[in-house]
Amino acid sequence: MSRARTQADPEAIDRSLDKASxxxxxxxxxEADRHLDQLAAQAPLKDTTLEEQLRRRGISRREFLKMxxxxxxxxxxxxxxxxxxxxxxxxxxxxxVIWQELQSCTGNSMALxxxxxxxxxxxxxxxxxxxxxxxxxxxSGQAAEDVLEAAIEKYRGAYxxxxxxxxxxxxxxxxxxxxxxxxxxxxxxxxxAENAAAxxxxxxxxxxxxxxxxxxxxxxxLGIADxxxxxxxxxxxxNLPACPxxxxxxxxxxxxxxxxxxLPSLDAFGRPLxxxxxxxxxxxxxxxxxxxxxxxxxxxxxxxLKKGLCLFKVGCKGPMAYNNCGxxxxxDGTSWPIMAGHGCIGCSxxxxxxxxxxxxxPLAGRVYPIPFGLDxxxxxxxxxxxxxxxxxxAAHAGATLVKSATEQRAAKKSEAKKEQ
Length: 420
Ligand code: SF4
Ligand code: F3S
Fold this sequence. Notes:
Helix content is 44%, strand content 8%. The protein is of the alpha/beta class.
């Protein structure tokens, strides 16, 4: 059984459990207990403790448990995991992490360190043993290389490697060289990944090549999983796409690793199901307007923009994109693209820059008529509009809705026949 729903409401998850699910989660809980006991038997890698970090931030134990309960729900786990997730956060001082910057804008690192409120994300990032991060560490040049080598040597086979950015393959990798010895991205990723326990590709560039890999892809940029395949390096990789990655999804993935000693269940594009199991469109605060056929008609439609109407006609790709950004949001949960008034550009989808453009208009330049009236069934509007829009793009989004429209038509026909 996999966790395919993005949820941030602990009670909703508990209410949805049937007998088989409860048994499944009880088995998972026993697995988590075994792994957490193993982690507890290891020596901490950092001098700090959870208590110290809580005291430093003025957070009570009770507030901390509330935060971890929300994190548990975000990871689509029921409340029987609340205390286990809290324990995993506490034991994070046993987890060595190496964060390697590649061909990127550093936006993912920035997103992680821009949290200003004391949340579980920031707390965990202070508790894990971040052994190497060019952006955050003080040493540079040869001293930084020495830190990296020492960390790989000390934690060989035990650390989590987080990569940010793509790997340029053209010109023998010389589009990206790092450090005084001029090692290429190719050499660095091979070295860091093949000695890691597991790999996290943080952000869309690391996951799928991102902007650097957009046509004509002058540096022949690859995402980490594709790169490791070319090198026949067989490591578990989790993709956490988005531009930038959400700190909650990085932290949730690390917590899942602490809980179970393995990476989360993934979708077809290597993304955790708990974070990328739902379409943007299904969790969007403007969905009511979409269902009612109320759209911003163009960028000069200031009334529609002020009213917060649906952004589909000005290019929102929310019906084709999968991510939990509408639930966890950015900047301490303050906002996210659609809330800020711009449609989703599908930044968490493979090849989004080439496949989901043009960003300011619906795909194929169509403006969809809304022939169903304000009271029409939501899925009917969504299915027909998206059925037209989804041609040639992320097949899983389109396929689901086209299928649902076909099923609805078949059901209506059969009802009509019965009435006759
Ligand atoms: Fe939200 Fe975009 Fe869907 Fe409209 S089309 S409901 S703005 S995700
Ligand atoms: Fe990206 Fe769309 Fe979310 S642009 S951050 S997936 S709203």
